[in-house]
Amino acid sequence: MTLLAASISELSRQLRRHEFSAVELTQEALDRTHDLDPELGAFLRVTPDLALAAAAAADRRLRDDPTGASVLCGIPVAYKDVVCTQGVETTAGSQILRGFIPPYSATVVNRLSALGVVPLGKLNCDEFAMGSSNENSAYQLTRNPWDPTRVAGGSSGGSAVAVAARLACATLGSDTGGSIRLPASFSGVVGVKPTYGRVSRYGLVAFASSLDQIGPLGKTVEDAALVLTAIAGQDQRDSTSVQAPVEGFLQELRGGVRGLRLGIPREYLEVGIDPGVRAVFDRSVSALAGLGAEIREVSLPTTEFALAAYYVIAPAEASSNLARMDGVRFGPGSPAATTLRGAYEDSRHQGFGAEVRRRVTLGTYALSSGYYDAYYLRAQKVRTLVAQDFDRAFAEVDAIISPTAPTAAFPLGERTADPIAMYATDVLTIPANLAGISGISVPAGFADGLPVGLQVLGPYLGESTCLRVAQSLESELNVWDRLPPLAGAAG
Amino acid sequence: MAAKRASAPPTGSIAPAEVAHLSSLARLGLTEAELARLAAQLEVIVAAVGQLAAADISSVEATAQVGELRNVIRTDVVAPGLTAEEALGNASVTAAGFLRVPAIQ
C-alpha cells in the first residue's frame, strides 16, 4: 500500500512521529508519477528538484518545531497549469504560453509554500480551462484512471487524476463552470468550488473573471477542507476576494446532517440523467435521509436558461481576457512578422486551439455592436434570475443536492466533434458559478465501475455546510479509499 | 443588418462573412477553411444560446459580478515590484529595456 493512500492528517501524524520523512514521502510520489503517469497523463511537468528541496526544508521544520508546523507541512501537492508558479513554466495547456516562466507565484501557491507544502509539478488541463474532458489541452491527453478509454473530465482533469491515482496528496484546480467538480466526479475524488471571492485569484491565468474560482481536490472531504482552509481568505492583491472567517470548515466538518434541510431541485433531475447515475444519487439521498437529513424538493426554474447564459458570459469574458495573449510580452511570439497586426495574428493563430478560437469568436460576437443587448445583456439578466432562484431555495433549505453531472466519464472522443454535447456536460454545475455560491462534488458510488459524484451546493460563503453534508455521506458510504485500476500495483 | 438584429430576438443565423469579421476583430488570423468550419459550428452554438430570448427578463437588472463587493480605495504606497528585467523576461523580442514589435501599419 502506498504512503499516498493515507489521509493528510494521518500522514502528518506519521511525519511528526518520524515514521518516514517528507523526503521519503515526496520520493514515493515522484516514483509513482514516474511509473504511472506515462499512461495517465496527469502531469505536464514534474519538478523533482524543487519538490525534494521543499521536502528537506519541511523535514527540518518538523524536527525543529513539530508543534508549530502546519498539518500540511511536508505534504506533496500539485497545481493545475493555470496557476502561476514562479520560475516554473506555466502554460494553461496552451501553445501560446509555451515557455512562459512566471516571475511571481499565485497567492494560493505562496500560502501553501509558507506552510511547508511540497510542490510536485504542474497538471494538465483544457486549454485556458475551456473544456469538460481535458481533450482541449494543446499538449497531451489525460486518461481516466478507472478506465483509460474514457475522459478524465475537465477542465481540471490532471488535478483530479493525480489525486485519484495517488500521485499527489491533494491538488489545486479552477472552476469556472464545473471544472473542479466535474473531473472530481469522473475520477472519484472530492472537489470544492469555493464561493466567488473566497479564494484569491491573484496569479490565476484568467478565463472568465466573474466566474473563476481556485479550489482544492483531495481524496477525502477532510483533505480538501484542510487545503481550502489554507488557501482561503482575503488577499489585497485580488480586489474581488472577500473578508470572511475560514475556521469553520474544519470545526464543523463532523457536525452531521441531522436536522439539516437538503433540497433536490426538480429541474436538475429533468436534464436526462443516466439511469446508473440516478441510482447512485437515489442511494445517496436515502443514506442522507437515514442520517437524519430532511429531504425536500425545491425549484430552480431558470435552470433551462443557465447553460445558454453561461455560454454567452464566459466566452465574452474570455474574449476580453485573452486579448493579452498577443505574443509580445509572453509566449513564443512571431519574430518573422513584418507588421504588428501580422505578429498578433500569427501568434494567436498558431497559439490557440479549436475550442479557444470558438469561444473567443463567440465572445467577440456577443459583445459586438448590435448583438450586445440580445446576447450579453440578456445573459447577464438571466444570471440575476439564476441567483434569485438560489436565494429563494436557500430560504427553504440549508443545502442543495444533485448528481454532479448527468453521466459518468464518457469515452474519449465521444463529444469532441459536437461542442453543444460537450457544453451540456456542465448543465448541473454551471448555475453555481453564475450565482457565485459554494459547492462540492463528493464520491457517492459507482455506475458500471465508473465513479459518480454527488454535488452539494451551499449558499454564498456556505462552504461549511457543503463540507459537512459531503463528510456525512463519505463517512456513511466509506468508498473514498477504493483505488482505481490505473493506480498501479503499489495501490 | 446588425442594427436590425438588435431589435429582433436572436435568430441563431450567422453568416460566414460575419465570422471573418469577428476573426479579424479578435486577431485570430483564421484561414478560409477554418472560417468555414467555425461558421458552421457557431451557427449551431448561437442557435442554442438564442433560447435566451425566451427568458422573461422584464423585471430584473443585469448581474455583472456576484457578492457584496464595493470599491475600496487604499492609499497609494510605493512597494517593491518586478524589475524591468523580470517584466521583460518572457518577451520574444526586446531592445534596450523595451519590448520590440514590428511597426504599426
Compact overview of the structure:
The complex is a heterodimer of chains A (491) and B (105). With 491 residues, chain A is α/β, with parallel strands linked by helices.
Q: What gross morphology of chain A would you assign?
A: globular
Q: What order do the helices and strands of chain B follow?
A: HHHHEE
CATH architect. name of chain A: Alpha-Beta Complex
- Unreliable residue stretches of chain B: 1-10
**Strand residue content of chain B:** under 5%
Q: Going by CATH, what is the homologous superfamily of chain A? A: Amidase signature (AS) domain
Number of beta-strand segments of chain A: 13
Helix content of chain A: 25-40%
Q: How many beta-strand runs of chain B?
A: 2
Any idea of the CATH class of chain A? Alpha Beta
Shape of chain B: flat
Distance between the termini of chain B: 29 Å
Biggest β-sheet: strands ordered side by side in the sheet of chain B? 1-2
Which range best describes the helical content of chain B: under 10%, 10-25%, 25-40%, 40-55%, 55-70% or over 70%?
A: 25-40%
**Helical segment tally of chain A?**
16
Distance between the termini of chain A: 5 Å
